[in-house]
Amino acid sequence: MADLSASPVIWIGLLCAIMSCLVSFIILRRLSFMGGGQDADLLGRLCVMMERETAARMAENEAQRARMAEIERALSNRFDQRHQELTETFNRIARMMGRDLSEMRVTQSESLREMAEEGRRNSDELRAAVNERLHEAVEKQMQTSFQRVLEQIGAMQKAMGEVSAMTAQVGDLKRLFSNVKTRGGWGEAQLRTILDDVLPAGSYDTNRRLRDDSREVVEFAVRMPVRATVPPVLAIDSKFPTEAYERLLQAVEDCNPDAERAARRALETTLRIEARKIATKYIVPPVTVEFAVLYLPTDGLYAEVARIPGLLDEIGRTYRVIVMGPGLMPAMLRTIHLGYVTLALERRTDDIARLLGATRQEMLRMDGVLEKLARNASAMSSSIDEARRRTGLVSRRLRELDVDTQEAATPDSSAASSGPDAQADMMGRWGDEGAPPR
After folding, report:
1. Which of 60, 80, 111 finishes a domain?
2. Residue 3's pLDDT is what?
3. 287 and 186 together in one domain
4. 70-103 pLDDT, tens digit each
5. Is the CB of residue 285 less than 8 Å from the CB of residue 228?
6. Cα Dmax for the chain
7. 310 vs 313: CA distance, rounded Å
8. Do residues 210 and 287 lie in contact, with contact meaning Cβ atoms separated by under 8 Å?
9. DSSP character at residue 227
10. CA triplet 327, 332, 338: central angle to 5 degrees?
């Protein structure tokens, strides 16, 4: 181990000595070639000195090697002693830890036993408390549930009373709708609500007379969205034939096919009669359009009418009357409302066309103004070109002056670089003439 640790130092010393010898030898050889016989003695003395120095370095290296070996022996002894001390210390710590672990194990077992007993006592107390709380909660829940059941029974009795009252009200409503005038007023109110929801304000009239020679009035007359001084109107009349409809529903409920067929024929006959009346009274071109609308207030009634084969097509073709229910009427009214929107857009289009015409005239005037500006800009551009040309001439004159100045300074620079005497000469000349040229 001493050889391994000391060998780098020794080899580095030897390498340095060899390198110094080689350098000295090369220097002496160079001096011998340059100096001749007189320098041979000097070369010999230098060689002797180098040999002595090399021997001294070798002796010093041997002494360092011996010191390193001694230091290594001392370190090895110290390391062995320290290793023995550490081994004894570790053994002592291990014995102490063994004793501590055994004592901790005994203490831990006793603590676990005490904790188990305490946990058992706590669990018994907790079980008793939970049983008590659970008993109280069950009793309270039973009382609450019983109270809720009583409240629900009271609410059910109240609801049954309300149902009885509602049954009486349904009977009253049924008796109310047995009056033809009341049924018509309800259908008219429903139709008015639909018209108000879909159409813009002021787009229809109520109870309007269409003929000058007749006192008949139509319930609703919707003004059509067309370009005219007096636009035509669409007549809409509400009908509610409840007798035939109720007989049909009763026959369907009783599963009586004969009564159902008779009720359907009666409903078909009633609807044809109403459509003929509307066509005779309320289709008056050019005051009205070529068709009218018969409104049925319930979707159930409209569905039963639509189930009669070919009835709606025949009424529309023969009497020019369109039958509609609450589900279809808003769609037709939205179409009319779209016509109003289209008419407003057409009017706006005319306004926009007039505005574009005025804008075109203004653009033509603006074109004339821009042409005048272009002529002025052309004259200004020619003036700018002339100014740029003269600026270029001045710039060229300044560049020529700069070149002349550089050429004048070039001989001085070459003289300054010719040698010390020339520099002294130039400095004397600058002292006579003043400052050097820049």
Report:
1. 111
2. 45
3. yes
4. 888 888 888 888 888 888 888 888 888 888 888 8
5. no
6. 164
7. 5
8. yes
9. S
10. 130
